[in-house]
Design brief:
Strand content: 15-25%
Number of domains: 2
CATH topology of the largest domain: Heat Shock Protein 90
Distance between the termini: 56 Å
Helix content: 40-55%
CATH superfamily of the largest domain: Histidine kinase-like ATPase, C-terminal domain
Number of strands: 12
Order of helices and strands: HEEHHHEEEHHHEHHEEHEEHEEH
CATH class of the largest domain: Alpha Beta
Structural class: alpha+beta
Number of helices: 12
Length: 382
């Protein structure tokens, strides 16, 4: 390996070595102790747009964007010169620059040529542009699916929301008629009118608050993760869950453990997860033959140090035939279900470095447990 050729010669071994290098799919280059390019194979030529003749003897920085020329090429040259294996054998992301000046994402893995003096490095370079685009497209698709899932959840809540909005709107109409009646009398009581107008204002704020919470569930802005109190996140949903539960003839209660440590989360995404689980529970309870249908949301600090949100019901539970496929996309027992709620919920929870798991409820029904890691500094200080 000490005599890797810089160009094709007439010798058999050199021809075979160059043919081997040129047959490789990845770009391969050899760098000397000063960071100069000694070997440049055909794949590297296609990747960067340079011929081997253009780059042999030049610094490896010519293949990198201006932003990375100083740091990356300096690191490589320093590692070669000092034989400090800080970057050897590890895949690292770089931004490559082609001959025409265009930039592209790439990755490089460096290995030292055994026994070479002065030391040399072999670099294996891969063009990651296609992979990055595939990942970006997958991310865009996932965002669209999550958006569909959010609106499906909002759609399922429609009857409960309509009932919840109807109460403040009906109160507004009642107090408005009262104001009209009071002002139409010969001796209008201004204090009574003022009190009625105050009630109108309060009911309007209540209706606006319901709409604000609904818009929060359906929003499409970029996720924003902040240190948050899980109990407050659940409290914001209570009115919506209560109204939905009443519409389905379900008793709802929540048991939130006080003084939980904070969790870094996007409240809208976690609320979407909770609402997905709530609607699954309400659908299950609709089929249950029980005297009192119950939905319970609890929070607690687990023995392992995570914050847990549990959504439990005493419905029909999960049949054994689909237990292993619960989180598989498009797996649904509902006639009009999309089969996206649970998979999207697990994806959102995993993006928060948490877990979403199912377990049977006792004596009957289902429990879905969301576990989220607490902020490390706070966990250490507990």
């Amino acid at each position: 390996m000490n005599d890797i050729p810089t160009s094709v010669s007439d010798s058999g071994p050199a021809l075979e070595m160059q043919a081997l290098l040129d047959a490789a799919v990845d770009g391969i280059l050899v760098i000397d102790h000063l960071g100069r390019i000694l070997t440049f194979n055909r794949a590297a030529e296609r990747m960067f747009g340079y011929s081997a003749h253009d780059v042999l003897g030049r610094g490896v920085a010519v293949l990198m964007s201006d932003d990375q020329q100083r740091s990356q090429s300096h690191d490589m040259a320093q590692d070669v010169a000092t034989q400090i294996p800080q970057i050897l054998g590890r895949r690292r992301e770089i931004e490559g620059r082609r001959k025409d000046g265009t930039r592209f994402p790439a990755s490089i893995t460096l290995s030292e040529v055994p026994g070479s003096h002065p030391p040399r490095l072999v670099g294996f370079i891969r063009d990651d542009a296609e992979r990055h685009e595939s990942e970006a497209e997958a991310h865009r698709l996932q965002e669209r699916l999550m958006h569909v899932s959010r609106f499906a959840t909002v759609g399922e809540m429609a009857s409960g929301i309509a009932h919840e909005l109807n109460q403040p709107l009906a109160a507004i109409a009642t107090y408005a008629h009262a104001c009209d009646r009071l002002l139409g009398g010969p001796d209008a009581d201004i204090d009574e009118v003022r009190a009625a107008l105050k009630q109108i204002a309060e009911q309007a704020v209540r209706a606006g608050d319901i709409i604000r919470k609904l818009r929060g569930l359906a929003r499409t802005e970029r996720p924003q993760r902040l240190p948050s109190d899980v109990n407050s996140v659940i409290d914001e949903l209570n009115d919506l869950i209560n109204s939905d539960a009443r519409t389905h003839g379900v008793i709802y209660r929540h048991e939130l453990q006080p003084n939980l440590p904070q969790v870094v989360l996007d409240s809208s995404q976690i609320q979407q997860v909770v609402m997905n689980l709530v609607h699954n529970a309400l659908d299950s309870l609709a089929l249950a033959q029980v005297e009192a249908r119950e939905l319970v949301i609890t929070t607690r600090l687990t023995p392992g140090g995570d914050v847990e949100i549990a959504v439990c019901d005493n419905g029909v539970g999960v049949h054994d035939s689909i237990k292993d496929r619960l989180f598989t996309p498009f797996c649904s027992t509902k006639p009009t279900g999309t089969g996206l709620g649970l998979p999207m919920s697990r994806t959102l929870v995993r993006a928060h470095e948490g877990t979403l798991e199912y377990q049977p409820n006792e004596p009957r029904g289902a429990c879905f447990n969301v576990r989220l890691p607490v902020i490390q500094e706070m966990a250490t200080s507990e």
